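Incident log, structure service

09:12 report received: a user says their structure output differs between two submissions of the same chain.
09:20 pulled the input from the user's history:
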Amino acid sequence: MNDGATRPSFEPWLPMEERASCCASRPLVRARGLTLRYGDSVAFEDVTLDINAGCITALVGPSGCGKTSFLNCINRMTDLIPEARVSGGLSIGDTDALDRRLDVIALRRRVGMVFQRPNPFPLSIRRNLDLPLKEHGMLGRARRADILERTLRDVGLWEEVKDRLDGPALALSGGQQQRLCIARALALTPEILLMDEPCSALDPLAGDVVEDLIAGLRGRLTVLIVTHNLAQARRIADWGALFWKQGNAGRLVEHGAIKQIFEAPTHDLTAAYVRGRRG
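09:34 re-ran on a clean worker, output below:
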């Protein structure tokens, strides 16, 4: 269902029982004993988790248990927080993502991010895509124009905005703004897309359109999505990971295929949470 918006150019939906088996079993992101502290506070502690390539992994759990903080470690957004200290291991493919010598700008091109609230630049629709492409060294105007059209088609926006590309991005609806932000991330051809509650600030119809888009990314790139919407996690994810605050720190409680998480959880906390009795 959607509000009349153009559908994304991907085929999104698969039955739940087919999802994990259709993804690569090759881990792309590996966390080993990963811990994040903000000063004296522990956001999460001792997380060991593999994220498989080409899959959609949903991070679920109550507020304050470290899900968004875990995302922030993967593209080194934690570097922007003076008191943040990351320990343990984190790799993306063969790259040590915590290596202090790593080119963080190049890392963030590989690992895009979409935030809870749409955050288009206060510029034209065209400039929202053109600017990051230029910043990452793509100076050919024709090539940038091709990427702009392709990515706007990918997110189902091209037919809606092709006649007003030089109009303000902030004049778009909330759902259109979020799809523009996703297009901006996709334009840089990331391997991984991090999404922090990307539908929570949208009305249900706009959220449906964005959810279709996320589901359609399966197999094209690796998606990690933080969501408090368990029905959404069940609809779109291949894998699920439950975080929970235990003591003073967030911890990973259970990780598995989404069907197993919802239908045969191995931990009592997971069973209670997915059945609505905890959280």
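09:41 both user submissions now match this output. Likely a transient worker issue. Closing.
09:42 reviewer note: The mean pLDDT is 91. The two ends are 29 Å apart (CA to CA).
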